[in-house]
């Protein structure tokens, strides 16, 4: 007598997209940290997430109140500040306290001087970052955006391996200060034509893991990723839990939605953010559209929300 098969059939609700999500997430976990991460990635569903948009500061026109009026009218949930606001820090704190949005991050500087062979420059860089951490704490910025050592500065850079080693020795104590201040140092992956190490999300994620610093995070920039990564979904998965801030821009640093490739690139990237349950902000950074930012950003917002809904 044949024993009947009592195994229930596969649920019709398990869609092809769910299977893809499970498979890609599992593979990303295995690539990053081995079999344990693989098992966790395969069985732990990501938390629900939403598209939280933050405005760029440099594209805003008028005085402080006029700039923030636009941010509020446009429906942004946050604003990304620049390090230059430190000179008017108290005014920003007072004015922002009256607004219905928050600060997503503060864009500060780069680590170039931190790897200089000049000890004075290195110490100045460390002191500058300490000041930035204090400023981030005061304006309640959860992320302090910094980039790896840049070419073209008045510093002779060591080779990439040495650069990475110096940063691994220097940043953890500063990252601990960041934790105490309620923020984190966000290391931004930057195109290899501009910096000498940490060009992709997987490289930065590996760097953060090796540092064992809770105060270090990853900044994912679409303009960089479109040039450096082969697939935006996979890139976001490789960054995983370390992604603390996302910068929005086309490959050419124009507003998302203006280039032909934007729809596919942002679909891939947003799909990855949903897979990892990303909880942070996505902030505009559009250098080539700086002059028309306020004029064109509303249309771009509609484009991004539509793509997010379909991702």
Mind explaining what this structure looks like?
This protein has one domain (56-310): TIM Barrel, CATH 3.20.20.150. Helices cover 47% and strands 14% of the residues. It contains 11 helices and 8 strands. It has helices spanning 16-33, 35-43, 64-74, 89-96, 119-139, 160-180, 201-211, 222-228, 232-239, 262-276, 293-310; strands at 53-56, 78-82, 102-110, 144-147, 185-188, 216-221, 243-248, 281-284. Helix 5 runs parallel beside helix 6, helix 9 (232-239) runs parallel beside helix 10 (262-276) and helix 10 packs across helix 11 (293-310). The chain is globular and about 50 Å long. The termini are far apart. Mean pLDDT is 88; it is low at 1-42.
Topology summary:
Layout: H1 16-33, H2 35-43, E1 53-56, H3 64-74, E2 78-82, H4 89-96, E3 102-110, H5 119-139, E4 144-147, H6 160-180, E5 185-188, H7 201-211, E6 216-221, H8 222-228, H9 232-239, E7 243-248, H10 262-276, E8 281-284, H11 293-310
Parallel strand pairs: 1-2, 1-8, 2-3, 3-4, 4-5, 5-6, 6-7, 7-8
Helix pairs in contact: 1-2, 5-6, 7-9, 9-10, 10-11
């Amino acid at each position: 007598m044949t024993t009947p098969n009592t195994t229930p059939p596969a649920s019709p609700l398990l869609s092809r997209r769910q299977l893809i999500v499970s498979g890609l997430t599992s593979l990303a976990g295995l690539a990053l940290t081995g079999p344990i991460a693989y098992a966790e990635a395969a069985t732990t569903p990501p938390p629900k997430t939403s598209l939280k948009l933050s405005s760029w500061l440099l594209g805003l026109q008028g005085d402080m109140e006029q700039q923030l009026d636009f941010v509020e009218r446009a429906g942004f949930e946050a604003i990304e500040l620049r390090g230059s606001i430190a000179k008017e820090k108290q005014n920003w704190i007072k004015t922002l306290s009256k607004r219905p949005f928050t600060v997503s991050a503060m864009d500060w500087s780069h680590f170039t001087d931190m790897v200089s062979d000049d000890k004075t420059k290195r110490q100045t860089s460390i002191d500058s970052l300490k000041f930035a951490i204090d400023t981030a704490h005061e304006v309640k910025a959860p992320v302090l955006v910094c980039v790896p050592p840049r070419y073209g500065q008045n510093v002779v850079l060591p080779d990439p391996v040495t650069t990475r080693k110096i940063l691994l020795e220097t940043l953890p104590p500063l990252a601990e200060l960041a934790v105490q201040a309620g923020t984190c140092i966000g290391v931004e992956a930057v195109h290899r034509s501009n910096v000498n190490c940490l060009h992709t999300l997987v490289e930065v994620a590996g760097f953060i893991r090796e540092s064992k610093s809770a105060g270090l995070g990853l900044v994912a920039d679409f303009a960089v990723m479109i040039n450096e990564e082969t697939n935006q979904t996979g890139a976001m998965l490789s960054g995983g839990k370390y992604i603390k801030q996302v910068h929005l821009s086309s490959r050419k640093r124009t507003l998302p939605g203006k280039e032909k490739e934007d729809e596919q690139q942002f679909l891939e990237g947003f799909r990855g953010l949903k897979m990892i349950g990303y909880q942070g902000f996505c902030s505009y950074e559009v250098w080539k559209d700086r002059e028309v930012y306020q004029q064109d950003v509303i249309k771009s917002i509609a484009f991004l929300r539509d793509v997010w809904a379909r991702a």
